[in-house]
UniProtKB/TrEMBL annotation:
InterPro entries assigned: Lon_prtase_N, Lon_prtase_N_sf, PUA-like_sf
Protein name in UniProt: Lon N-terminal domain-containing protein
Pfam families found in the cross-reference section: LON_substr_bdg
Domain Lon N-terminal: 1-179
Length: 206
């Protein structure tokens, strides 16, 4: 998934310049406690490594970049030696993508996704298109994780799930929950205005 970012804070300019010069990825993590501004933020311990694939440098030193996620990681130790956080991390690969349980759960999730997209289209009064769903449980799990319009905390739970069966099981629960809320919104005539809030209050056009 491509992640466009506008880099304007000095500490992040420093970080991105280092990543470019040393061909390093950077970590994308959700803040668990504290504020993003300043050095008091404490991130969740599972995040995603991102690789910079495009850079547009602006005259005043700001940058527009595009990064793509590569793999999950666990934070082992945080360091505060720079103006930005750095960390020692270990890979956190997704496992059990080809197990019988993963296949069974993918078969449950597939119709739920189609129903969810249909309901979301009606509630938001927009035409949302979804191409043919992948057969591979791992690919399906990733697609649903990207498509679900839920809170950052729910997304974090998906990111932290150990393997494909756990991801799909949580997605099945979230799809059922969000679909019920969407049905209520449709039946009561409540429309999601301009795609500003999903049924749980989070809806962002992908």
């Amino acid at each position: 998934m491509a992640l466009p970012l506008h880099i304007f804070e000095m500490r992040y300019r420093e970080m991105i310049n280092r990543c470019i010069e040393e061909h390093l990825p950077f970590g994308v993590t959700l803040i668990a406690h504290g504020e993003e501004v300043g050095m008091t933020a404490d991130p969740y311990r599972v995040g995603t490594a991102a690789r910079i694939v495009r850079v547009e440098r602006l005259e005043d030193g700001r940058m527009n970049i595009v990064a793509v996620g590569t793999q999950r990681f666990r934070i082992l130790h945080l360091y505060h030696e720079h103006s930005y956080l750095t960390a020692e991390v270990s890979p956190f690969p997704v496992i059990n993508g080809a197990t019988r349980r993963a296949v069974e759960l993918s078969q449950r999730v597939r119709p739920q996704v189609l129903e969810y997209v249909t309901l979301l289209s009606k509630a938001a009064n927009v035409n949302l298109m979804l191409d043919r769903l992948p057969e591979d449980p791992l690919t399906l799990a990733f697609l649903v994780a990207i498509s679900l319009q839920v809170s950052p905390q729910d997304k974090q739970k998906l990111l932290e799930a150990v393997g494909v069966p756990e991801i799909l099981a949580l997605e099945s629960y979230l799809l059922a929950r969000e679909s019920k809320l969407l049905e209520f919104m449709i039946h009561t005539g409540k429309e999601i205005q301009a795609l500003n809030g999903g049924p749980s209050g989070y809806l962002f056009p992908n």
